[in-house]
Amino acid sequence: MAKTTPGLAFTARNTSIAFSLPTSVYVESPTTNKNVKANAIWDTGASRSLIRPEIVAKLNLAPISKTFMDTPSDKRVPSNVYLINVYLPNRAKIMYIQALEGTPNSCDMLIGMDVITMGDFAVTNLNGKTMFSFRTPSMAEIDFTKHSHIEPIKNEKPKIGRNDPCPCKSGKKYKHCHGK
Q1: Taking a C-beta distance cutoff of 8 angstroms, is the pair 165, 174 a contact?
Q2: Which residues pair with 111 in a beta bridge?
Q3: E-strand spans in 14-130?
Q4: pLDDT: is 145 or 65 the higher one?
């Protein structure tokens, strides 16, 4: 079971809309404490975290088991499972992650839902700039609908009474002119 260093958070900001959520992390061998820097992508579509064979080789990791990994193309691929620790950008250490070995596109590691569900995770795209935040452990429910509301439309014009003169300047009372 993975464990985390409590009460830590980080925010990653992009200067434009991002189509992936990248950060740098350090992947560590729990047995030797040797670590390597890795480019990671946070992937809510991945149920488990994934590391490239190059990371496995640099850390001289030994598999703890084997399993099958489901790929985006619906193939079941055999994969080694490794025990790793990951240091997040805020230095929070997530220990004893059972990461699968694979070759994710354009990164060294996918951070999957096995890590993301250990805390609170939110993505926003305000003013054409993507930002995402993660904190561990989970501390509060994030509900965008609870704290946002639509302001009622306010009529800035004074209300016309039924017996007031009609604003069209006909000389008639509003109720007999445009108030019908």
Answers
A1: yes
A2: 42
A3: 21-28, 35-42, 50-51, 65-70, 76-87, 93-101, 109-111, 120-124
A4: 65
CATH: 2.40.70.10, 3.30.870.10, 3.40.50.880, 3.40.50.300. Which one for 3-140?
2.40.70.10
The token pair that represents 3 in the structure block: 């464990």
With beta carbons less than 8 A apart as the criterion, state whether 98 and 114 touch.
yes
- Are residues 66 and 79 in contact, defined by beta-carbon separation less than 8 angstroms? yes
Count of other CB atoms within 10 angstroms of residue 116 = 17
Q: Which two tokens stand for residue 143?
A: 């509900």
* Each residue's pLDDT tens digit, 50-77: 999 999 999 999 999 999 988 777 788 8
In the β-sheet with 120-124, what is the strand arrangement from edge to edge? 8-13, 131-136, 120-124
Closest CA to 59 of 44, 80, 43: 80
pTM here is 0.74
